[in-house]
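user: At home tonight, take the chain set out below, taking as long as you need, and be ready to discuss the fold:
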Amino acid sequence: MTMIQQLVFELETPYAGRPYHVSGNALYQAIAADVDDRTRRELQVSHAMFAPSEYGSYPESHSQKGYAGKLGSSLPPVESYEDLFLFRDAAQRWLQTSRPRDAQNTMDRQSHGGRLTVAPESFFGVPEHQRNSKRRVKWYIHAYVHSEREGVLPLDESVLDGIQLGGARNYGFGEVSLADSQVIDLDAVSFDGLRGYDQYTIELVTPYVLQSEKPDADTQSVPYWWDRSVAGVPGDAPTRDRRLRRREERLVGESVYELATVDHGQLVGYAGSDPIQTAKNGILRLGTHARFGFGELRVRPACHDRVPERGEVA
């Protein structure tokens, strides 16, 4: 039985860090200070994604259909593989198309003594005939943890509530409160949405580590089952997009280690033979520093466009 614990944190104070995700290492460091040695050794933590609390509808691939009311601040039930990624797509495609989606999915920047942060809430104007002159949108952070050992999960609320993430924590930045949590048995999750297709693509949800300065860290090559010619990827990708984009990352703790990674957000073709098992492995992440959120993958049928508004590819 493979268990994961999904977590939703409400951002309470400005966050001094990247506005697109919180690294799994940062979240691990925040949690590790308040757990026992066994949990500290065994805990594996995903990168955390930002999402607004807004009105939305479930994507077509989701097990639930139609209008969902407010999403982002809580966790709907997970029945299928696709459900796991509802809040892990940075575009947050569940946001209502009748509202200004791009604006609602953009965090406000603030300056505190020259230090740039992202705000825990955004404000929007409303039509003149409405009672209030503006509307507030709160921001939340979505992550999940897992362990290969029994008895580690679920983490207690007292461990998670009130932790701080990002920089300048001694000035009060990055405080979060636990808004919701649920434990999921991956063996009970349906992968039927991936069955019966001839070709698949892989999305890099988080960076994949190739090299790390951390002692004893393994050097990785690009997996052989990544088709870098982008065969099977919807659309006619230009030649420049057929080379994998790289990114320099850091692993920060008592020491700082430089990482060379394949950047997240890219699509490659799938040249393997077992897409279901690859999808399961991708949830728990692959490669060096997987326990700190690197190497998360999502598998899709090649005929399913990552951007549904473009329609299905023939």
